[in-house]
Amino acid sequence: MKNIYLAPLEGVTDSIYRNTFEKYYGGVAKYFTPFISPNSTFKFTTREFKEINPEKNNIETTVPQLLTNKAEHFLWAAAEIASLGFKEINFNLGCPSGTVVAKKKGSGLLYYPEDLDNMLYEIFDGLDKACRLVDAKAPAISIKTRLGKADPEEFYEVLDIYNKYPISELTIHPRVQTDFYREPIRPEFFEYAYEHAKAPLIFNGDLVTCDDIENTLRKYESIDAVMIGRGLIANPELALEYEKGLEHKALDPRLFKDFHNELLCEYTEILSGEKPVLHRMKEFWGFWQNSFPDSEKAIKKIKKSNRICDYKDNVNILISSAISAN
Ligand SMILES: Cc1cc2nc3c(=O)[nH]c(=O)nc-3n(C[C@H](O)[C@H](O)[C@H](O)COP(=O)(O)O)c2cc1C
Predict the structure, then answer these.
(1) In what order do the strands lie in the sheet with 62-63?
(2) Is the Cβ atom of 8 under 6 angstroms away from ligand 1?
(3) Whether residue 225 has its Cβ less than 6 Å from ligand 1
C-alpha cells in the first residue's frame, strides 16, 4: 500500500480543516500546511503560528511548508519549526501566483537557477547549525516544485540542481507557472524526473479517482506516494476508498453532514461575523459541489446564502435529499 498526502491549499486546508478531515475521514499519511512566508521580522504571524502550533497540529503527520527566496529566513523558520517537534519542512517552489512570482518566490525562483542553487546550498549547509542554536534536531527538507516558469524545458536544469542536494522527497506538479492549474499537465517531464531524479519522487496533479491514483502508482512503480489536493477535498472519502480498495459510491451523506457541521461550528467559533464564516464555507462548496452531481440548484442556493441560518437550511435541504436518495 502506497501513501496519499494531502496537498496544501492556501485558504482551504488550514489546521481546522486538516484536523476535522482526519477525525471524520483520514487515510492520509502526511498533511502539508499552506505556505508560511518567513521574512525579516523573524516572527510568525498569529495565523501562521496556528498552522504549526503543536497543540493544534499532529507533529508526526503535519509538514509545514515555507515560501521564501532568502536562505536566512528559511533557516530561521525551519529551526523554529523543528524546535516544536516537526520532522520535515517543505520548500514551496511551485506557487504560480503573480505577486509571489514577481518577488522571485515559489515557481518564480525556478527562472533564476543560479539563485535557486545558491539558496539550496545555503539551506543544506546551514541547517544543522541553525537547528543546534535552538536545540532542535535538523528536520528533513522536502521540495514541492513545478517544472519551470514558462518553458517546461527549464526543468532539466532545475532537476540537475535538485540532484545536488539531499532532498528527502521531491513532489513534482508537472506544469509550468504560466499553466496555473488549468492547462493540461505534462507527464513526460515527470517521466524524465522518474529516470533522472535522485530524491524519492511524489506525483501531484489532477488525480481525482482511485483509478487515477492506481494508474499513476502502477506507471511509476518506485514512487511511494501521491499528493492530492482538489480531488481529495471534493471527495473526502477518496483516500479511504484507495486504502480499502472500495468502489466509488456517492458520498455517505450522514458522515459528510457531521464533517460539514463540525467545520461550520469551528469556523463560527474562531471567525468574527457571519460573512467570513460564509465565505470560508462557500470556498469548500466550490470543491464539494463535484460530489453532488445533479444538485446545481441546491448548490447555487447554498452559495447565494447571505445569513448563516439560510445557509444551514439550504445545506440541510441538499443533505436530506442525498440521504433519501442513498
Ligand atoms: C486555491 C489553491 C491554493 C493553493 N495553495 C498552495 C500552497 O499554499 N502551497 C502549495 O505548495 N501549493 C498550493 N496549491 C497547489 C496545490 O497544492 C496542488 O499542487 C494543486 O492543486 C494541484 O494538485 P491537485 O490537482 O491534486 O489539486 C494551491 C492550489 C489551489 C487551487
Answers:
(1) 62-63, 30-32, 3-6, 225-228, 201-204, 170-172, 140-145, 88-93, 65-66
(2) yes
(3) no
Residue written as cell 441560518?
A: 309
CA 322 to centroid of ligand 1, rounded, Å? 29
Q: What is the pLDDT of residues 18-35, one digit of tens each?
A: 999 999 999 999 999 999
CA of 308 to the centre of ligand 1 (A): 28
Give the whole-angstrom CA distance, residue 66 versus residue 78.
8
Angstrom distance (rounded) from CA 107 to CA 159:
13
* CA angle, 141 then 142 then 143, to 5°: 130
Hey, is 150 helix, strand or coil?
A: coil
Q: What is the pLDDT of residues 186-238, one digit of tens each?
A: 999 999 999 999 999 999 999 999 999 999 999 999 999 999 999 999 999 99
The structure's pTM equals: 0.98
Q: Tell me the CA–centroid distance for residue 23 and ligand 1, in Å.
A: 22
The three cell numbers locating residue 139 = 528536520
Q: Kindly state the percentage of the chain with pLDDT values over 70.
A: 100
What CA–CA distance (Å, rounded) separates 324 from 241?
Answer: 22
